[in-house]
């Protein structure tokens, strides 16, 4: 992304705030794994959306007044010893080239600067990016700041930035779509690598190795999210990460994988027979998926309530399953369809956007995900593609990844 993208995102966010507002965003810190080892660091996505930066322990402070807003980025100072161990820290000029932020201070001065601002009389409310989930164990920097403000400045109103950020991230800009298209090309390479190397007896970790190797050839060193690659009975675990199963002759291999390119994600699922030839039952169920997917891409357009997407997927897929003699009553559709059929993608795999009650608009990108699970037959797979809503319809961003029985069998044979 060009730095103008991140500057534009900050402008759009601050435009929603009233004068006298202070907004704080935190990049986050590594989480301890064990002993002196941390889990791999992953920057807060809203922070990245506003700055383009993924450096740990960094704080963005933005203050709005009647004339506009001022911003300061609090960064880690140079530290020769630590940088020998963990790598060089970004310098102000490097950060400015990425983000178009030009005002900097060192992180160690943040608390004092925050105190000055909060006691200046200019601030009427503070915005924090609060995004808690039930059962959450790790306390975020925004959570800690909320507790600090309530204790030290109990009369200061605190607002949540998340609803604004969810609204901003809902509609993708042209540069985001281009990044997604590039990510689709690499996703295709990874899926084709698994398909072309597939054979009975392969282990799931071998399929994963093919996928990861293909991505690495394009400079992508980590999958966009933990890859779901399963075979046989393991396909009946929707989010499966074991990678220890073996694909036996006649088994379906299911993958649900993605690539992150320039911060934008793909999320694509395909299911194929490890021996390269669909059985009659596998083909029957796959055709139900495919016809449902094609139906959705033929009718999705601006103006449709987002909640109708999943409902229509279930209705139409039921009709296909009924015609195939698999499901007699819509009341039984839950026996074969176990999960929703649409979620947005973007900076997150399940993108954090205001979509639940939204009306479909141009620039939205979400998955069309048709999953069918027939435990009695031992067949479980899904056909998942990424749908871009256009001015008068939609476009399947992942259409070039083999998605018909004929195309998949041709690739594998």
From TrEMBL:
Q: What's a single GO MF annotation on this record?
A: metalloaminopeptidase activity
Q: Which residues form the Aminopeptidase P N-terminal domain?
A: 1-136
Q: Give the record's family classification.
A: Belongs to the peptidase M24B family.
Q: Which SUPFAM superfamilies does this chain map to?
A: Creatinase/aminopeptidase, Creatinase/prolidase N-terminal domain
Any Pfam family hit: AMP_N
Q: Name one GO biological process term.
A: proteolysis
Q: Does the keyword Metal-binding apply?
A: yes
Enzyme Commission number(s) of this protein: 3.4.11.9
Gene Ontology cellular component annotations, sorted alphabetically: cytosol
Q: Which InterPro entries match?
A: Aminopep_P_N (IPR007865), Creatin/AminoP/Spt16_N (IPR029149), Creatinase/aminopeptidase-like (IPR036005), Pept_M24 (IPR000994), X-Pro_dipept-like (IPR052433)
The alphabetical list of record keywords is: Aminopeptidase, Hydrolase, Manganese, Metal-binding, Protease
Lineage of the species this protein comes from: Bacteria, Bacillati, Bacillota, Clostridia, Lachnospirales
Q: Which cofactor does it need?
A: Mn(2+)
Q: Encoded by which gene?
A: pepP_2
Q: Name the catalysed reactions.
A: Release of any N-terminal amino acid, including proline, that is linked to proline, even from a dipeptide or tripeptide
What is the protein's name according to its record?
Xaa-Pro aminopeptidase
């Amino acid at each position: 992304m060009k730095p103008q993208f991140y500057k534009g995102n900050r402008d759009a966010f601050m435009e929603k705030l009233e004068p006298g507002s202070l907004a704080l965003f935190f990049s986050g810190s590594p989480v301890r794994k064990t002993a002196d080892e941390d889990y791999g660091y992953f920057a807060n996505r809203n922070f990245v959306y506003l700055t383009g930066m993924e450096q740990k322990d960094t704080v963005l402070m933005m203050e709005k007044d009647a004339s506009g807003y001022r911003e300061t980025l609090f960064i880690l100072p140079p530290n020769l010893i630590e940088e020998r161990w963990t790598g060089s820290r970004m310098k102000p000029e490097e950060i400015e080239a990425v983000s178009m932020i030009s005002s900097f201070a060192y992180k160690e001065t943040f608390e004092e600067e925050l105190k000055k601002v909060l006691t200046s009389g200019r601030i009427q409310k503070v915005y924090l990016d609060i995004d808690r989930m039930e059962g959450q164990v790790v306390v975020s920097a925004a959570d800690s700041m909320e507790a600090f403000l309530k204790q030290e400045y109990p009369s200061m109103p605190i607002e949540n930035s998340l609803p604004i950020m969810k609204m901003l991230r809902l509609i993708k800009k042209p540069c985001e779509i281009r990044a997604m298209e590039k990510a689709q090309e690499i996703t295709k390479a990874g899926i084709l690598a698994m398909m072309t190397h597939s054979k009975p007896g392969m282990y799931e970790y071998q399929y994963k190795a093919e996928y990861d190797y293909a991505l690495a050839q394009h400079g992508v060193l980590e999958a966009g999210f933990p890859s779901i690659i399963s075979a046989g009975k393991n396909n009946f675990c929707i989010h499966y990460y074991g990678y220890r199963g073996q694909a036996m002759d006649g088994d379906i291999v299911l993958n649900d994988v993605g690539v992150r390119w320039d911060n934008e994600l793909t999320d694509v699922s395909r299911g194929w027979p490890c021996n390269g030839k669909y059985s009659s039952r596998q083909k029957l169920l796959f055709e139900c998926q495919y016809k449902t997917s094609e139906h959705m891409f033929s009718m999705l357009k601006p103006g449709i309530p987002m909640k109708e997407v999943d409902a229509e997927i279930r209705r139409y897929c039921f009709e296909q399953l009924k015609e195939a003699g698999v499901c007699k009553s819509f009341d039984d559709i839950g026996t074969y369809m176990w999960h929703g059929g649409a979620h947005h993608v973007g900076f997150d795999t399940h993108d954090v956007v205001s979509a639940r009650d939204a009306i479909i608009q141009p620039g939205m990108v979400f998955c069309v995900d048709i999953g069918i699970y027939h435990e009695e037959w031992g067949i479980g797979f899904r056909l998942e593609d990424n749908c871009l809503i256009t001015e008068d319809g939609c476009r399947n961003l992942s259409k070039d990844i083999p998605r018909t029985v004929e195309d998949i069998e041709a690739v594998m044979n």
